Amino acid sequence: EVQLQASGGGLVQPGGSLRLSCVASGFTFGSYDMSWVRQAPGKGPEYVSATNSGGSDYADSVKGRFVISRDMARSTVDLQMDSLKPEDTAVYYCHAEYWMTGVDFWGQGTQVTVSS
Fold it and tell me: How far apart, in whole angstroms, are the C-alpha atoms of residue 113 and residue 38?
């Protein structure tokens, strides 16, 4: 059974930090591009960051504040989020996609709320 278990969300004040973690199982983790996508209330999904064998990429809105990392041994992908802003408030989803076929999987999401 494929699983992407995201955790680490919570309530944080503006300027604070959170670290999200996504644990993958049930598929060949190393063959998949991994990314984080978020969805704010009343808005559509927004790409945040991705990592694959070629490197990492970030949306302009988070560049310089977020860092994505991947641990092949543990089959995890983390998102370190610093200098958080209220506009970062959203449900964050872990996403896996096999670049060759487009087969993809989604995690259940973890809520991040940035508020004073």
Answer: 12
pLDDT at site 12: 98
In the structure encoding, which two tokens stand for residue 11, read together?
A: 């309530």
Q: What is the mean pLDDT of residues 80-86?
A: 98
* Biggest distance spanned by C-alpha atoms of the chain: 44
Structure confidence by residue, pLDDT tens digits, 22-70:
999 999 999 999 999 999 999 999 999 999 988 999 999 999 999 999 9
DSSP string, 2-48: -EEEEE--EEE-TT--EEEEEEEESS-GGGEEEEEEEE-TTS-EEEE
Tokens 């694959």, residue? 52
Report d(CA 22, CA 27) in Å as an integer.
Answer: 14
Find out whether 20 and 78 touch, Cβ atoms under 8 Å: yes
Asked if residue 76 lies in contact with residue 94, where contact means CB atoms within 8 angstroms, the answer is: no
